[in-house]
Amino acid sequence: MRFHLITPSYNQLNYLKRCVASIRDQAIQGCELHHEVIDGASTDGTAEWLKRQGITHISESDQGMYDALNKGINRMGPNVKSQPETIFAWLNADEQYLPGTLQAVADYFATHPQADILCGDALVVDENGNLITYWKSLPLRRVYLHIGTLYNLTCAMFFRAHVFASGTRFNHRLKAVADLVLVDQLLEGGAKSVCLPRYLSTYTYATDNISNQQHAIDERLRYIRTQPAARQIFGHPLSRLCRASERFLRGARRQTFPLTYQLYTNDLDRRAAFQSGYVAGRWPARSFRKGN
Questions:
Q1: Domains of the chain by range and CATH?
Q2: Based on the number of CB atoms within 10 Å of its own CB, is 108 exposed (0-12), middle (13-18) or buried (19 or more)?
Q3: Is 262 in a helix, a strand, or coil?
Q4: CA distance 82 to 69
Q5: H helices of the chain, where?
Q6: Nearest to 141 by CA among 133, 150, 132
Q7: Over the stretch 189-221, which tens digit does the pLDDT of each residue have?
Q8: Does the predicted model carry a pTM greater than 0.90?
Q9: pLDDT on residue 82
């Protein structure tokens, strides 16, 4: 099995160093690991640092994160259909994999050949690594996606490379829902998704996250308004109710505390250990009221 991991980055060197460290310390038996950074011509020394570290990278102007991710998919080569054992994923610069993540993912894909998309759980932390909330994955369902949010965090999602063989790519003109649209297209094309009930990664929540910005909220609303009126009026409330019920029945709002985890902070030679008391299993902000 081979992992092809992409990190899109732009002027996030401090975060990027931690992200890279969280990938480098992954021990995977019998697997090849390829990680490259697609940098949007950063001005904070990112390209120079990547070069010193010997990390495969591109540093050039692009049209945003989703354009960078398309470059990463295309760099897997034209014959992704013949690569059922290649696993593609992206980890943003301010995200990290938790210890043992890639081994757990490799083991799951090896024993579940029918799985095309794997969704794991993630921890949502602040800039210092402190736990804000936990986020457990649900099965990917198109009717849930049509509400307007990709309700599983992409930092804990992994894809068999062959799902991109048909040419499905991110719409880089979109800035907030391109990942949702891509996943919807993959499911429409027959991709099968599964959930791995394990914390795989950390997502850094900050007020300047793209999802919290007004243009992202507006883009989600525009996406919803492209759907049939009957679906908006009747289907979406029912889908939200079903998703909330499924989240409850699967225990996605329950967690045993204290919760311990390890991630990189200022020391890039070793992970820092964290232990958190109770936090609610809810997204920290609801800037988009028709979402989570």
A1: 2-276 (3.90.550.10)
A2: middle
A3: strand
A4: 21
A5: 13-24, 46-53, 65-74, 101-111, 142-145, 178-188, 214-225, 229-230, 236-249
A6: 150
A7: 999 999 999 999 999 998 666 666 777 888 888
A8: yes
A9: 65
